[in-house]
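Task 17 of the worksheet. Students: predict the tertiary structure of the chain below and write it out as structure tokens. Keep your answer in the requested format; marks are given for formatting as well as content.
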Amino acid sequence: MVAWSQLLLPILLSGVLVFVASAVMHAMLKYHNSDFRKLGNEDEVRAVVRKGNATAGMYIIPHCTDHKEMKTPEGLKKYEEGPVGVLILRTPGKVEMGPILGQWFVYVLVVSALAAYVAHSTLHAGASYLEVFRIVGAASWLAYAWQAPSDSIWKGQPWSATIKVVFDGLVYACLTAGAFGWLWPR
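Model answer:
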């Protein structure tokens, strides 16, 4: 059996690798920039949302309290006229990247710790690099990537954005699996 103390270094190293890779992918490669579009009347939409006193949270447009309301003539008309979508609002103010990046780093450490748990539960000391890579890679890819298809199905996120998230998750999973495979106790 592998001691948990022996997994701290791969957890930390994989977290750092994923954090750096995500910074490169988002800040330098910027291929996610096309995931978001600008409304032609953004200022008008902002004014209407402010006028409604919406607080930070997730909203659906049109909003129906139940399926019966969706099937009424009025409800059907709202859906036919559009727009139909999900609106996510943050607290107003300057976007501070420090706390967001801090939360992201904690998240990648949690994913690495969960992948370590799966590996600890299924592998023995001396497992081969490939065995460790396979188990840790699958567990971490599930954590990093496979919520995105649900967002496309239920929230209408474009599938092109989902494919990018799944690809990012695969890169993060390979980095995590590589760190664990390299540092796995022999």
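Marker's comment: The chain is about 65% helix and 5% strand. The chain has a mean pLDDT of 96.
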